[in-house]
Automatic annotation (TrEMBL):
PROSITE patterns: TRYPSIN_DOM (PS50240), TRYPSIN_SER (PS00135). GO terms for molecular function: serine-type endopeptidase activity. This is Chymotrypsin. GO terms for biological process: proteolysis. CDD domains: Tryp_SPc. Residues 1-104 form the Peptidase S1 domain. Belongs to the peptidase S1 family. CLIP subfamily. Keywords: Disulfide bond.
Length: 104
């Protein structure tokens, strides 16, 4: 089990009524590849700051693969990669990190 402390703590869960607007800066983290076809995964947990995108912005890029219940985040220079699936997408709400999505 994890030992909770100043650098390890549980994340809050978003409520069904929460709205996180496009442009909100969020963070994802994971142990996935640091670039496409990298030979190995990193030794340290990686994180990337990503702005939330509107569903329309996401559909323009990914088309019909995006449903109305999906959350999309991304920006230039940072992304999740192979091996990050299942990891968290957290946004700050009331000074607490809140889980708003899971990396697909």
């Amino acid at each position: 089990p994890a030992r909770l402390g100043s650098s390890v703590s549980p994340v809050c869960l978003a409520e069904s009524s929460d709205v996180f607007a496009a442009g909100t800066n969020c963070v994802t983290s994971g142990w996935g590849l640091m670039r496409y076809n990298a030979p190995s995964t990193p030794n340290n947990l990686q994180q990337a700051a990503l702005p939330l995108l509107s569903n329309d912005q996401c559909k323009r890029h990914w088309g019909s693969n995006i449903s109305d219940v999906m959350i999309c985040a991304g920006g230039a220079g940072a992304t999740s990669c192979m091996g990050d699936s299942g990891g968290p997408l957290v946004c700050e709400k009331d000074n607490a990190w809140t889980l708003v999505g899971i990396v697909y």
